[in-house]
Amino acid sequence: MEITQFSMEEILDPTNIIEGKRYEFILDVDIDEEDELYHEAGIEIRVLIAEKGEESFVLNYFIMEKAEGEYLDFALEDEELEEILTFCKEEIAKA
């Protein structure tokens, strides 16, 4: 899996109920044709990242097939989640 494009947006909490910061990432990913997650039109992963103090973690993620906009019922492997978290943390640090 390779991240080819992304967008990032901080989710603001006007009520100040949520501790820390929240970010939403939309990741376009390139998937190997032999992977069961592969779709010809492409895959997009929506990731919600929480940052609390010095710790960052994935709150939730959704995998979507781009052509139809349908959510896919797949779970990412631990290594894939770690790769995504590392990418997101680096992008947050740049912002």
UniProtKB/TrEMBL annotation:
Superkingdom in the source lineage = Bacteria
Descriptive protein name: DUF6509 family protein
The uppermost taxa in this organism's lineage are: Bacteria, Bacillati, Bacillota, Bacilli, Bacillales
